[in-house]
Amino acid sequence: MACGVEQLVKHYMDDLTFRQLVHNIHDHIDIILANKELPYIALV
User: Fold this and answer.
1) Which domain of life is it from (predicted)?
2) How many domains does the chain have?
3) 16-34 and 5-14 helices cross at what angle (nearest 10)?
């Protein structure tokens, strides 16, 4: 079932469990990105 941005915001605001899940996912992504060397290409 597809869910639009409006529905996601409603779930985020109304459902503490969903909000905690979103924050946990965000924290895991931050940890992964902090430990990974990302390729950097300078454009001049």
Assistant:
1) Eukaryota
2) 1
3) 110
Backbone angles phi, psi at 2, to 5 degrees: -75, 150
Predicted TM-score (pTM) above 0.70: no
Using CA of residue 26, residue 31, residue 37, residue 40, what is the dihedral sign?
positive
The domain in which residue 26 lies consists of 5-35
pLDDT tens per residue across span 1-44 = 678 999 999 999 999 999 999 999 999 888 888 877 767 676 76
Cβ-proximal residues to 36 (8 Å cutoff; 6+ apart), any chain: none
Residue 44 lies in a domain: no
Residues found in the chain: 44
Q: Answer whether residue 21 is part of any domain.
A: yes
